[in-house]
Write the structure tokens for this entry.
Amino acid sequence: MSRLAFNSLRNLRTTALWLLGPADLLIRRLDGRGDLPPLWLRRHAGPVRNFESAARGTEDTLRQLQLVRETDQVLEIGCGCGAMVPALSRMLGPGGSYVGFDVHAPSVRWCRRHFAADPRLRFELAEIASPYGNPGRTLPVEDYRFPLGDGGADFILAKSVFTHLLEGDARHYLHEIRRTLRPGRLALITVFLFAKTAGRQAFPFPEGDSPIRWLRRQRVQAAVAFEREFFESMIVEAGLTLRSLIPGYWPGTATVPQGQDVLLLGLPEAMDTR
């Protein structure tokens, strides 16, 4: 399918979901879930059926690993329409704060309106070239700086972000995580990782032996996977260390990517103060 045909179909889907919005809102209010984003924004973030369950699963991981403290400054990369914001706001106390950024302007606008009453929360639009937002924008990803100063984040979350980045953008995001992460603290990212011996399996493109693969030929960034050793070398090159890996897709032998691998990243021990 050509890019033009795909964009036309996606626009039709968005319009259909927008028209279904009032009915969806009524149903959500009846079952006590009226605070969720509109249907079309939830679909932009991924399959609608996974919107709430994926957020709950990530919240469980954050709590079990005690990654967020009440006074933390949290940075979320690719916040979308705020799936993780309610959970993170519950973890933060009055002295904590949150900054989320995304390339999708409608999602950022919705978050700014919906969470406006909480002064701890701030949302920024990343005006960079991306297939997921900002049509017409030409600012390269490598020129974008995360909206925090050096060492300004006590915890960084990038849920379902690196699964949509190719090598150059992924390298830049890892460098920015290194720049903004406070010594002694951790970042949690999710990614699809595969072993060299796994074959192409769920990620059949491109042909041949490549450390980066994708799910759909015409929509490369719809789902991207990295060979584990290659991705770990990118982590080291960015000045980070891999502290822990919780397998989800790894070792990459599944024919359908049902889960994502959870990686905890920190600064090298010599630079850590913890």
User: Anything to note?
Assistant: The first strand starts at residue 73 and ends at 77. The beta strands are 73-77, 97-102, 121-125, 153-158, 181-194, 212-214, 224-227, 241-246, 261-266. The helical segments are 3-19, 21-30, 39-44, 51-64, 85-91, 105-114, 167-180, 228-237. The radius of gyration is 19 Å.
